[in-house]
Amino acid sequence: MNLKTVVEKLGLKVFTTCPLKREATGGYSGDLLSDVMAHSREGAVWVTTQNHPNVVAVGLLTGASAIILTGDQTPDHATLERANLEGVPLFGTSKSGFQVTGELWELGLRP
Amino acid sequence: MTPRRIAKVARAQGICAIALADHNAALNVQAMMEAGKREDLVVFPAMEVTSKEEVHLLVLFGELEPLLAWQEILWQHLPGENRPDYFGEQLIVDAQDQVLGTTSRFLLGAAQLSTDEVVARVQALGGLVIPAHIDRPSFSLLGQLGFIPPSLPIGAVELSPKGKGDLVPPNYICIRSSDAHYLTQLGPGSELVAAELNWQELSLALKGKEGRRMEIK
Questions:
Q1: Is B83–A60 a contact, with Cβ atoms under 8 angstroms apart?
Q2: Which chain A residues contact residue B110 at CB under 8 A?
Q3: Domains in chain B: ranges and CATH
Q4: Of A28, A57, B47, B150, whose CB neighbour count within 10 A is largest?
Q5: Helix and strand counts by DSSP (H, E) for chain B
Q6: Of A37, A52, A61, the CB nearest to B138
Q7: What is the nearest CA distance from A63 to chain B, expressed in angstroms?
Q8: For chain A, which domains are there?
Q9: How many CB pairs under 8 A join A and B?
Q10: Residues 6+ positions from B184 with CB-CB distance below 8 Å
Q11: What is the pLDDT of residues A67-91, one digit of tens each?
C-alpha cells in the first residue's frame, strides 16, 4: 500500500520532506529498540513513542517504510535532519499506539 | 575520543577525576587508566550498561579487576553483532591512542539482564550503580519506567549536563556528568566533597555518608 494512502486514511502529520516512494507492506508496534530490531520486518510501518535520532537508525536497519510517532510528539531537529538525510519518512499523530495500530490493521496491513 | 586526548583535555579543564563509561564495554578502561596516570588524572573504572528495559545504568568500581569480572558476566547476556555501516566501528585502543582493533559485539544493544539483576550483580562485585541521565526521556530509568522503583537498592542518580532534578525524589543523591561522547563535550560535572580523592571517599559521598557529599551546580 502506498504511504500516501496511509497518511490520508489515518490523518497523519508528515514531518519529513523526503519523497513517499515506498510501499507499506506490514506494520510493527514497539518502543524497545532491541525488540524492534529483532522483530520488525522490511517494509513495516513502525509505530512508536520513541523520539530521538536512534529511532531513524533503527528504522533504517529494519527497513521500515515509515515511522509513526504517537502521542502528538514532534521530532527534534537532530531526529528530523537524520530522517530527511536517510530518506526515512516520519509521520505523527495525536492518537495512541493502540489506536494507530488498530487503524493500520483495518487498512489491511499485516505483520 | 582517545585516552591521551581525554586525559589532556580533562586536566586542562581542571578536572581531577573521571570515570570512563563506554556502552556495555570495559575494553578501553585499562588504557584510559594508564593514560590518566601520566597526566595525574584519577580514572575510575566504569561502564554504561543498557538493561533489558533499555535503561542506561552507570556502573562504577574502585579497581579494574571487578569491572572486568562484570564484563564477563555481561558478555554472556549481550546478544547481537554490530553493524558498522549503521552504527560505526567500535574501536579498541591503547594508552598511546593507537588503534588495536575493533569489537564486533553489539555494544549499542540491550543486555538480557533486568535493571534489578544488573544492580544485584554489580553490587555483589563491590561496584556502585547510578541510573544514568535520569532527566532524559529516552534510555533513562524515569523515561522507561516512569518512576524509580522504591525497592531498587540505589542511592544516587545522574542528571544530564543541563538536566534538572525536579522529578527526583528528595531521598536520592543527584550527580551530574558530562556524558561526553565527543571531546568538546568533556567538562566537570560534580564536585566531590571528601577527605581525599579515592574510591572509599567517593563511595561514601555517593551514599551521603559521614559528611562526604557530591555537589552539583
A1: no
A2: 32-34
A3: 3-186+203-209 (3.20.20)
A4: B47
A5: 7, 10
A6: A52
A7: 12
A8: 3-106 (3.40.1390.20)
A9: 22
A10: none
A11: 999 999 999 999 999 999 999 999 9
